[in-house]
């Protein structure tokens, strides 16, 4: 369970988040809104990547700004550019790096690595140069590297931006199959069809919060007004 209480944040002259109160308990939650509405900033507060100026973010009662290490074990974060998340030369090394700070014994570490490679169809690429994977495969590697840590929550910031239609469908299927709670920021509104809840942001505030069809309709109407 994630709770945001009175979360506000300024970046430069701009009030990027204003008094956000949210309790996020559903299994699949989408966050939508115009460019610059504050989605990424909000997402980054969920695992302590950004410490808000005011208010608190609690993950299972842990303060994301203070108990950051414990919160990061619970909340995995995926950035939109999968290439930027690749830190090691090969696929297996990159996934293994994610496990390093968990201090698992060698048997457990190898078992998790093997199971994760298999789950994401990356077994035959284990020793492959990670930067030479296709865009979709890099996305799968990014999923693997985050999920091998077995977080309880996965926050994905625009994971579909660079993907073709086939890989978007693959992403949708991958997300649908996850045991984790998922918070997904996206401009691909169709990814949210089967979600439990969609939060609409505008100018740093939550302006709508509800089931996907209503939330998407609200967002479309809001954007429609702006282009008139
Ligand atoms: N380091 C910074 N300094 C000043 N302003 C910033 C900084 N980082 C982001 N901003 C501003 O904060 C606002 C919110 O940005 P944020 O990335 O959270 O929006 P977003 O809703 O995720 O946008 P997008 O859909 O384009 O990814 C934007 O106006 C952005 O220009």
Q: Main sheet?
A: 6 strands, mixed
Give me the strand/helix succession. EEEHEEHEHHHHEHEEEH
Give the mean pLDDT. Answer: 92
> β content, as a range?
25-35%
**CATH evolutionary superfamily:** P-loop containing nucleotide triphosphate hydrolases
Protein name: ABC transporter ATP-binding protein
GO molecular function, one term: ATP binding
Keywords: ATP-binding, Nucleotide-binding, Transport
Organism: Luteipulveratus flavus
Condensed summary:
The protein is α/β, with parallel strands linked by helices and 228 residues long. It is built from eight helices and ten strands. The model has no long low-confidence stretch (mean pLDDT 92).
3D architecture notes:
The protein has 228 residues and is α/β, with parallel strands linked by helices. The chain has a single domain, classed as Rossmann fold (3-Layer(aba) Sandwich). 36% of the residues lie in helices and 27% in strands. The chain contains eight helices and ten strands. It has a six-stranded mixed sheet, with helices on both faces. Strand 4 and strand 5 form a beta hairpin. It binds adenosine-5'-triphosphate. The site of adenosine-5'-triphosphate has 12 residues, from strand 2 and helix 1. It holds the Pfam family ABC_tran.
Name the descriptors.
Rossmann fold; six-stranded mixed β-sheet; 8 helices; 36% helix; binds adenosine-5'-triphosphate
Question: How is the topology of this model organized?
Answer:
Blueprint: E1 2-11, E2 14-24, E3 28-33, H1 39-45, E4 54-59, E5 62-63, H2 68-74, E6 75-78, H3 82-85, H4 91-99, H5 106-119, H6 135-147, E7 153-157, H7 165-176, E8 181-185, E9 197-202, E10 205-210, H8 212-227
Parallel strand pairs: 3-8, 3-9, 6-7, 7-8
Antiparallel strand pairs: 1-2, 1-4, 4-5, 9-10
The chain binds adenosine-5'-triphosphate (ATP).
Adenosine-5'-triphosphate binds at residues 11-12, 14, 16, 33, 35-41.
